[in-house]
Design brief:
Number of helices: 6
Strand order of the largest sheet: 3-2-1-4-5
Shape: globular
Largest sheet: 5 strands, parallel
Strand content: 5-15%
Helix content: 40-55%
Radius of gyration: 15 Å
Order of helices and strands: EHHEEHEHEHH
Amino acid sequence: MPYMIDGHNLIPAIGLRLDDPNDEAQLIALLRRFSARTGKPVTVYFDRRAHGASQPPDAGGLTIRFVSHPSTADAAIRQHLARLRSQAPNWTVVTSDREVQNQARLAGARVLSAPAFAHRMQTLGQAGSAAEKPEAQLTAAELAELEREFTRRRSGQ
């Protein structure tokens, strides 16, 4: 079952700080690891893509979406659910936003709060086993693109 995640809801739930300029990059690395270990695809939405910044590369079972103003991650998740139609019950939506949770339930998707998903990630990280898939490794090109994206975001370009 794939996951659709509100990234800025999850960041504080896993112990990162929203005011850290590298919070999204840190979450992306954790979600890549989670996707690799579970074999589950993950789509993460973030608010406020920096003006003119390129989209970070999707890789390792992780799709990354920065939503441009005036839209929001919540709106993008609702739109994604609407596009899924009859496939929505195959997804788990991770958000702490009540309105998005309600819409996900109405679409038939499973819902997890950000703290519940953070606990799942933590449990998986502590319960490593030989049967787990290896961690997804970024290629040099993927790492360079992520670094360029977050440097641009930090400088406000």
